[in-house]
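not sure who needs this but someone in the group chat was asking about ACO11 thioesterase from Ptilorrhoa leucosticta so here u go. i didnt clean anything up, its just raw.
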Amino acid sequence: RATLLLSRCLLKMVKGNVIVPEEILSFCCNGLQGSTSPPRAREPGEREEAPGAMASPSPARNPTEVQMSQLVLPCHTNHRGELSTGQLLKWIDTAACLSAERHAGCPCVTASMDDIYFEHTISVGQVVNIKAKVNRAFNSSMEVGIQVSYEDLCSGKHCSICKAYATFVAQGPLGSKVRLKPLTPQTEEEKIEYSIAAERRRMRLVHKDTLKDLLTHSTQETELETRDGRGAVPAEKTRVESVELVLPPHANHQGNTFGGQIMAWMENVATIAASRLCHAHPTLRAIEMFHFRGPSQVGDRLVLKAIVNNAFKNRWVPAAGVPLPPSPRPSAPSSLLSGSMEVGVSAEAYGQEMSVSRRHINSAFMTFVVLDQEGHPRTLPMVAPEPGDGERRYREASARKKIRLDRKYVVSCKQTEVPLSVPWDQSNKVYLSYNNVSALKMLVAKANWALAREKEKVRMYTLEEDKFLSFRIEMSVCITASRAFSLLSNLRRRHEWDSHYVSAELVQKVDDDDMIYHVVSQKLRHENKPQDFVILASRRKPCSKGDPYVVAFRSVMLPTHPARAEFTRGETLCSGFCIWPESEEMSKVAYYNQAMPGYLNYVTTNVAGLSSDICSTFEACEKFLLKNKEDLISRLQDF
């Protein structure tokens, strides 16, 4: 009753333009919400609790992290009741953009998106959960990592959908570039992503050259399987062209079209093109890495074009014990064959005047499959490419398929899932180099290293994981980091300080940063012959201040250097040096190694203190660096 009287008095005071004291207003509002007493005065130094704050403190979260949850409604789905991939791409781009703008403090635009592999479809009524956060900021661009999963509200089941990496560029007034503040990673996961982001950036920059190089080295008979035309669908019949008008809801507050909206429109026309080949409803399985060439604005007309470039036949490998036919004959069971198709799609923009040439906004390549009732990919008709550009696109699609497989199985999978000695060739050199350096950086970023031994200046640490025992040995040396990097990255000089090395022959200089060596080591105690290795050595200079110099080693296979009877072929999964400058003349040199089974006894003997061989070898490394640093300076000056 008292609250009601006060409320009536408050209403009269407001109507009479009388200023209401804050204490009375607060008391009335609290009373209307069920409180019958005035608010308690805070004690000196007591902080005001935020509305809705939990009693227990929550763990610190990355300030750039954005979480989005979307309930899949019928308006978001296709005819099968599954979430449209175009709609999912819009949500992914929105969440990633919000994360980028949190770090930049200004508007950001999508510059590129790495490969996306969609593992599952999402049904109506399920919830899409998207988490995005900035992995690393460079000068004016930043990498945003995105994780997508779905949640079934009825069963409580959670399942991963895809993981993506997007690059955003910060924009100032009139589209000027903004220099970004550096990002400091806190957790072990963030440190790993931060470190490897530099390698992913390097891989993006050479993506075009990788495709061009593969096409140059491949033969001209790149499986034009449909020359005779029998049963093949002319590619021209799959061609689609559509136009969209960019309206304010499609753009940000600066008037630039959302990258996710463009991707959704592109996915739509690509799906139509794929449907024209298979006369069914296809499912999008992957989108290849792509770059936005330029912006489009509100009022632009976007012309979207799509065509099927190639259709592939993939042979299924059934479970063990189930024999396969000797060859994929036309009469082979359809369950043993599956198919996928690549659709090329482009977006061009123009204004009201058609006299102005169209601006190329984006090109993308999407891989589709057609699923049967059991969810297995069906076989697809062959494609008959048009002469000229059609045949070029057909061959490029085959090259892109190989690159996709290399990226997926060398780059995307976990380190423990990559075969030890991956066959090296010209087409996968970029991805093997990436895997080599990123594996070492992941090992460096691990948090649970334990000090095992310390002998004078040399410290030895171990890291015990489920399948591996890794060790790290480090010391400070009076030498600049760049000079130590030059000396330690040359394996041909390793025998000068490492008694285990007999020789190291440079087999192939891939480029300035990657070289392949044939290494011969001493005889093993239980063997009567020496061990040999074929090793890819990848070196990296710091990408930004605080990064180390890196020299990474891993085993590869070369047809020119098969295993020979006079050697025991050895393998190394992950090893190498990281060198941090401590001052102008001092550097911290650290060597890392994931011990293979044949090397395990040697490591554990040193860790237990039963041998000082590793420490002695590292002390010899220090003497080598000190002895040769002046020679290196004079040689560089002469050069």
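also The chain has two domains: 65-217+233-317+337-413, 418-628. if thats useful
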